[in-house]
Design a protein that fits this description.
single chain; about 260 residues; alpha/beta; Rossmann fold; Pantoate--beta-alanine Ligase, Chain: A,domain 2; six-stranded parallel beta sheet; three-stranded antiparallel beta sheet; 11 helices; 9 strands; globular
């Protein structure tokens, strides 16, 4: 497995591999089984698998959240190699956003609802970094998890609107045995907070907004940001809650159209 720190190194490493399919799995590290499922799918469908490892500061609207985001590059690289990744692109923030950087991509309507309403600028950061990764890696396929349903929809719109030559591959949400959707932020939950957090997947499992809101209202220590039906592809019942100092999102698919 190769590790590239610069855009130029990444392009050089990929140039001789262009004749075969290239799959990209964008990550911010802190890998868990959800990420590994994406890497597995990419490994099965491509000759070359690229994983980006970059905590993107542009998609954080709270400095504290960025500072506390879990980082363990050595572990992430080990897991990536075990998963069969061929190349890891692990740039610095300065490599991705050099001095004077001022060009942004904003998926205006999709980026302003749900998560976008609570995290202004978040999806501008997501869309910009993903477009830049697509231009650097030039993958045939890019892999994202259904757990971040709105992010998937933003990337789908980005690809369609800008006529990008990349296939979006969406993999199912991976959950722990207790039903909690895997997330790097789960590590912040105390055992008591984790038990409270289970109210979110249990509420969404009703597949009914009013029932979900009622169950969450009855759950101690759970602050609801939203529960909404989103007309994505496919439609989902999506929710976001705060448990202690941790904010969690989740969704369930309503219609496999």
């Amino acid at each position: 497995m190769e590790v590239a720190r610069t855009i130029a190194e990444t392009r050089r490493a990929l140039e001789p591999r262009r004749s075969g399919g290239v799959g990209l799995v964008p990550t911010m590290g802190a890998l868990h089984d959800g990420h590994l499922s994406l890497l597995s799918a990419a490994r099965a469908e491509n000759d070359t698998v690229v994983m980006s490892l970059f905590v993107n500061p542009a998609q954080f609207n709270e400095r504290g959240d960025l500072a506390s985001y879990p980082r363990d590059e050595r572990r992430d690289l080990r897991l990536a190699e075990e998963a069969g990744v061929d190349l890891v692109f692990a740039p610095s923030a300065e490599e991705m956003y050099p001095p004077g950087f001022q060009t942004w991509v904003d998926v205006v309507e999709l980026g302003s609802i749900l998560e976008g309403a609570f995290r202004p600028g978040h999806f501008r950061g997501v869309a910009t970094v993903c477009l830049k990764l697509f231009e650097i890696v030039r993958p045939d396929r890019a892999y994202f998890g259904q757990k971040d349903a709105q992010q998937v929809e933003v990337i789908r719109r980005l690809i369609a609107d800008l006529a990008l030559e990349v296939e979006l591959r969406v993999c199912p949400t991976v959950r722990d045995a207790d039903g909690l959707a895997l997330s790097s932020r789960n590590a912040r939950l105390s055992p008591e907070e984790r038990e409270r957090a289970l109210a979110l997947p249990r509420a969404l499992a009703t597949r009914d907004r009013e029932s979900a809101l009622r169950l969450l209202a009855e759950s101690e220590g759970v602050e609801v940001d939203y529960v909404e039906v989103a007309d994505f592809q496919p439609p989902v019942l999506a929710g976001a809650v705060r448990v202690g100092g941790t904010r969690l999102i989740d969704n369930v698919v309503l219609d496999e159209r």
